[in-house]
Amino acid sequence: MGKVYDQVCMFKAKYPGTITWWRLRKHAKVVEQHLNPGEEPIYTFAGQKNDDMLDVFSTCVVCLTNKRILIGQDHVLYGYSLSSITPDLYNDMQVFRGLLFGKITIDTIKEVVIITNLDKKCLPEVETAITEFMMKEKKKYGSFNRVPE
Asked: How large is the C-alpha radius of gyration of the chain?
């Protein structure tokens, strides 16, 4: 299979407590279809794209590439959805750790993306991967807070 699926399988093997048994190969295929030329997956994980810890049927694959974050979901009956977060749209991220599972909230200029039902042991690794990449890439865009003279 492709690199995205291989990385998400490694994530699932490392953190089996994450609730993502639902169509990972199909979700990874959505992300792989939308990789641009020269775009390589750096870090991939899976979770539930929703704000409800009890909803376990909205599994998605989140792929951090060398240019952006892609979140892919293949729908059961027809179609799929893909979200793309580029470094210039990224604001911040919050990590929540509960008794059994964790949740990551990625805030962008246009929307808030919430990934739930993550194994609480994976939270530091996921946070570090996303934060390190975004901090490095945001430096390339320069300062947005300049006051016009």
From this structure: 15
> What tokens were used for 128?
């570090």
* Helix, strand, or coil (residue 134): helix
Single pTM value for the model = 0.88
- Whether residue 114 contacts residue 98, with contact meaning beta carbons closer than 8 Å, is answered with no
> In whole angstroms, what is the distance from residue 22 CA to residue 49 CA?
12
The model's pLDDT over 99-129, given as tens digits with 9 standing for 90+, comes to 989 999 999 998 999 999 999 999 999 999 9
The DSSP bridge partners found for residue 73 are: 81
CA 123 from centroid of its chain's CA atoms: 12
Burial code of 76-97, b = ≥16 C-beta within 10 A, e = fewer? eeeeeeebebebeebeebebee
